[in-house]
Design a protein that fits this description.
Its EC number is 3.2.1.23. It contains 9 helices and 16 strands. It is α/β, with parallel strands linked by helices. The chain has 2 domains: about 1-285, TIM Barrel, CATH 3.20.20; about 295-355, no CATH class. The relative contact order is 0.10.
């Protein structure tokens, strides 16, 4: 699957593949590492390199990503006196150990750019600036430590921190969001970079299917490069599926389709994939001009802008933007009229002829249709020869209940995560879990507080004011009667 997805990304005009490194996937038990099968990070990076693409390795090791615990392994929770993502020695020790492990693996396989490999960027931490204020006065010292620790590993490629305005030198602070054209790095010595351009959004149980029009996505990309951008990455370009217990929470679905240009099943989502491919082709026509100098800005009227790039040899490229989201406009540029649809950017690789407009789609448009297919129930038909099963047929199997050697009973309530260290897929039966509790309690005059504790669907992925893992959360109960007694 990797070669096909990577080739489709390359055909779509990408130069770099970003990938997170999931700590709990690779170190499920403290000190025991797993890089086999679909967890083979080295093989994945080498597959990207074989396609002629580069890699941005986002080590984290906190990654969020709507992933279980944001990538943290559950065993961290059991280390005495640990607090996460703060100036805490037990946490920093484990974070440094894992980060060093990954870096050493990459070095041993000669995968960094200075070794001739594809890795041109690395990331430490993840969107910490969004929650830094909740961590108190030691938050900045933690970020400074993380930066120092990362640079001490001598990877000889730039390190970035996304959403971290106070990232210390030489760490490059980058932008995540739907639009990043207004973003500026915290030093004029750092390039303007966009690590996450959200192509859609993740899916929650009970929520609608997220959708972002490709016209808007292309507009965001063009505006970013129009205003001095140097690097942008789609999050996601292919979203895929969160298998097993990897989907985080609360209430995040297993589908991570993200309305991405390559959909959950590896199929091209048109016209999103094709329209972005056409945009990438045009931008690459004048790469030399984009990196030669900062653009020159000219106002063409209210909400109408031109940015021009010129090289020392006279090469010229221009972006004309209409940032009004309702009204079309006609502007005059270099003595010629140009029609600009609302909320669009026209790109002129030679400062004269329009090669692309973000609001005009010329690529293929397709409509996917869901069709029924045959299934094969192995449990019901053990006599069927597996060679007769088509690869396109769905297969489902009966999952046996654990043997007597792996089950136990307890008088009283058990909390699943603490009991099993997150190593089980279920606890108890699949029967209706609803229940009604009636009990006589004594209330004092004035305000009374009643706490109910309940496990959530999916384990928390985003740590804000919390410095340790939240294993349970209160939900909204249905209240009956309460009386003084």
């Amino acid at each position: 699957m990797w070669p096909d997805l990577i080739q489709k990304s390359k055909d779509g005009g990408l130069d770099v593949i970003e990938t997170y490194v999931f700590w709990n996937l690779h170190e499920p038990v403290q000190g025991q590492y797993d890089f086999g099968g679909r967890k083979d990070l080295v093989k994945f990076i080498k597959t990207v390199a074989a396609a002629g693409l580069y890699v941005h390795l986002r080590i984290g090791p906190y990654v969020c990503a709507e992933w279980n615990y944001g990538g943290f392994p559950v065993w961290l929770h059991f280390i005495p006196h640990i607090k996460f993502r703060i100036d805490n020695d037990p946490f920093k020790k484990e974070m440094q150990t894992f980060t060093t492990k990954i870096v050493d693996m990459m070095k041993n396989e000669k995968l960094f750019a200075y070794q001739g490999g594809p890795i041109i960027l690395s990331q430490i931490e993840n969107e910490y600036g969004n929650v830094e204020k909740y961590y108190g006065p030691t938050a900045k010292s933690y970020i400074d430590w993380a930066a120092s620790m990362a640079t001490s590993l001598n990877v000889s490629v730039p390190w970035v921190m996304c959403q971290q305005d106070n990232a210390p030198d030489p760490i490059i602070n980058t932008c995540n969001g739907f639009y990043c054209d207004n973003f500026k790095p915290n030093s004029d010595k750092k390039p303007k970079m966009w690590t996450e351009n959200w192509s859609g959004w993740f899916l929650s149980f009970g929520g609608g299917v997220p959708y972002r029009p490709v016209e808007d996505l292309a507009f965001a990309v063009a505006r970013f490069f129009q205003r001095g951008g140097t690097f942008q990455n789609y999050y996601m370009y292919h979203g895929g599926t969160n298998f097993g217990r990897t989907s985080g929470g609360p209430f995040i679905a297993t589908s991570y389709d993200y309305d991405a240009p390559i959909d959950e099943y590896g199929l091209l989502r048109q016209p999103k994939w094709g329209h972005l491919r056409d945009l990438h082709k045009v931008i690459k026509q004048f790469e030399e001009a984009l990196v030669a100098t900062d653009p020159t800005y000219t106002s063409l009227g209210k909400n109408l802008e031109a940015h021009v790039y010129k090289t020392s040899t006279g090469r010229c490229a221009a972006f004309l933007a209409n940032i009004d989201d309702h009204s079309d406009a006609t502007v005059t540029f270099n003595g010629k009229p140009y029609h600009l649809p609302a909320w669009s950017v026209s790109i002129l690789p030679d400062c004269q002829n329009v090669a692309f407009n973000t609001a005009r789609i010329n690529s293929q448009t397709t409509v996917l249709e869901m069709k029924y297919t045959k299934t094969y129930d192995q449990a019901a038909d053990e006599s069927t020869d597996s060679s007769e099963i088509s690869e396109s047929e769905w297969k489902f199997f009966t999952e046996p209940i654990g043997s007597i050697n792996t089950t136990f009973k307890n008088v009283g309530l058990l909390e699943q995560i603490n009991t099993t260290a997150d190593s089980t897929s279920n606890q108890g039966s699949n029967a209706d879990a609803s229940f009604k509790l009636e009990n006589v309690i004594t209330l004092s005059s004035g305000q009374n507080r009643i706490d109910l504790l309940s496990a959530t669907v999916g384990l928390k992925t985003y740590f804000d004011a919390l410095t340790t893992m939240t294993l349970c959360n209160r939900t909204s109960p249905e209240w009956g009667r309460a009386r003084n007694g």
